Amino acid sequence: MLSTRQAYGYGAAVADISYDVVGIGNAIVDVISQQGDDFIDSYGLTKGAMVLIDAERAVELYDAMDVMTETSGGSASNTMVGVASFGGTASFIGKVADDELGKVFGEASEASGVGFTVQPGTSGEPTGRSMVIVTPDAERTMNTFLGAATTLYRSDIPEDIVSASQYLFCEGYIWDIDVTKDAIRHAIQIAERAGRKISFTLSDSFCVERHFDEWHELVDNDIDVLFGNEEELMTLTRANSHAEAVEMVRGRCEILCATKGPEGSLIVTADETIEIPPVPVPHVVDTTGAGDQYAAGVLFGLARGMSLFDAGMLGSKAAAEVISHMGARPLRPLSDFLG
Hints:
disordered N terminus; 5-stranded mixed sheet; 9-stranded mixed sheet; globular; UDP-N-acetylmuramoyl-L-alanine:D-glutamate ligase
């Protein structure tokens, strides 16, 4: 099968590829609870956003939440689990502490078939966790205590793994901490030197606002495949509509994957716009992880030399699977959607 580089005319295939995708992001344990909008109001939460919180606030919210599930998470980590569920080869770069939650995270990665080689921190902050509130409209509101995730240093980046991956997938959330921003920039440089492709998710419109100027530079100079939803792309471009935002990004990176929720997505290159229809879901339970799994499907498809349409459809199918149940990771093997 052709590599992505061969399929899109990027030159000869590189012989030393060991991974389809390596992801870099915050290593987080998700604490998920179903609550009403009154809970959002009572605790002054910003509905639909990801907000960073301190340890005290994390304890307050944790104590107030009920009907909880706890599972390994983090945006890029979720995407790598999706890639592996499709049958792809994936590795994740993130930092946990040498504590119980850190062990849970590592064991979950291994059980999912995702490589996780970064050594845990032995002092300082505990493993990070995100309080995910799911309201009846299936919207998710995340309040995240990053903990040990903030101590991912450039020395933690496994150069051999990054160099051996067709795609580096970067989580926008990691840009919020100077230490981890330096680490992700280092990973991008390693991937570029090795001739690999850089993919990036905008993560959250508030995140886009915080890093507006830097991310414009990234889009123009480093990113090959960009993922963003309507709100994120409109924030990035200051556009008045999603269609206008898409046109303002078109051609600035090789591939733009613009998601539109229940309306599907667009895969946009300099020369064409490919409409990807949504996959119907009888009952949407939890939108947590929809974007993560969409990215998993697209990246797996690209890494395996599929057409842009077929890769996009894998993204739609993976997103549909994950929003049909609680949690940000697939319950059904995504490889079921191949063939």
